[in-house]
Amino acid sequence: MRTSRSATGVAAFAAAAVLLAGCSSSGGKDSEEKPEEAGGGKVSGPRLTIAMVTHSGKGDAFWDIVQKGAKAAAAKDNVEFLYASDDQAKEQAALVQSYIDKKVDGIVVTLAKPEAMKDVLGKAKTAGIPVITINSGGQFAKEYGALNHVGQDESVAGEAVGAELEQRGRKKALCVIHEQGNVSLEERCAGVKKAFGGDTENINVPGTDMPQTQSQIAAKLQATEDIDTIVTLNAGIAEAAIKAKGDAGSEAEVSTFDLNEAVTEQMKAKEIVFAVDQQPYLQGYLAVDGLWLYRNNLNVIGGGQQVLTGPAIVTEKDVAQLEKLTKNGTR
Fold first, then answer.
1. Angle ∠(114,120,121) on CA atoms, nearest 5
2. pTM for the whole thing?
């Protein structure tokens, strides 16, 4: 498992933050005598309510992992955790507004289509509700009043993929964008193109329609026979690309962003050559824990800067370590 050099420092800090939080709530005489200093678990203060609103989530294994991390932190911190998602930016903003109206104690939100979220996050700030952004649109977090952003730098992640493709001797890459207008997906493909010495071509597919996505990728592979590598931007699209490759009779390698049980099995079967792990569990965990820390002690993880949770390149060599964790739904 290889972590991109530019992400290593802050990612290590994020991991350390989780480790410290876990130690502080593990019991013992000190934690029993001073629950308010325990960092979570048996806190003596009021129960907080923290809401998370994402741009995707229904039936998506990635967001299940994010929620699992968030729920683990919520259980430790005596937090009521609320979750909602909508793939339409306008509806996502409306969900955030509904939680502002409920006067929750903190909000976690994604910024896949940042402009649609700008006004409502301004309303959260006016209402005195702290916000942490996760996963996408990190470059807008500070401008929109968030405490910080937890996720990977998408440009850096794309460059890590481009460098990996270069190292593997690939010549022509197809980068599959499954949600038009999502700034993070566009940054990933741009990063690939920047670091890859070969040619990179993007294709937009309807990510909510897997048969159509598979068909469009297959058609592109048949029309452009020199494509020797396919980069997908989430695990579900990777499965469609594997099937499309078979339909087209293509020998192109498949790599993907994001890791889950299916991707681990596909790497084991040599259907996927590598994946980019951005640690979604950590994104959910740190966001909820960060809001708890802020509400109780005015702590801001990362000093207001982005807290990087990736990227890390994982390959078949890492499968043995990851199989149990991906089956548990935490990686």
1. 70
2. 0.84
Per-residue model confidence as pLDDT tens digits over 102-159: 999 999 999 999 999 999 999 999 999 999 999 999 999 999 999 999 999 999 999 9
Number of Cβ atoms within 10 Å of the Cβ of 40: 23
User: How many Å apart are CA 26 and CA 325, to the nearest integer?
Assistant: 21
Tokens encoding 311: 């990227």
Taken as a whole, the chain contains a residue count of 331
Which alpha helices (DSSP H) does the chain contain, by range?
Answer: 5-24, 29-33, 61-77, 89-101, 115-126, 154-167, 183-195, 210-223, 235-248, 261-268, 280-297, 319-327
- 166 is written with which tokens? 């270069």
Find out whether 152 and 310 touch, Cβ atoms under 8 Å: yes
**Residues 282, 65: Cα–Cα separation, whole Å:** 9
**Contact (Cβ atoms closer than 8 angstroms) between residue 184 and residue 136:** yes
Handedness of CA 266, 270, 272, 274 (dihedral sign): positive
As to burial, measured by CB atoms within 10 angstroms (0-12 exposed, 13-18 middle, 19+ buried), residue 34 is exposed
Q: For residue 315, report the phi and psi dihedrals to the nearest 5 degrees.
A: -130, -175
Give me the domains of the chain, ranges plus CATH numbers: 2-152+279-310 (3.40.50.2300), 154-277 (3.40.50.2300)
Q: 147 with 132: CB under 8 angstroms?
A: yes
SS3 category, 117: helix
For the chain, the C-alpha Rg in angstroms (whole number) is 20
Of the candidates 182, 161, 181, the residue with the CA atom closest to the CA atom of residue 173: 161
Q: Position of tokens 């209402």?
A: 127
> What tens digit of pLDDT does each residue of 185-200 get?
999 999 999 999 999 9
Instruction: Determine the Cα–Cα distance for residues 286 and 130; give it in Å rounded to an integer.
Output: 14
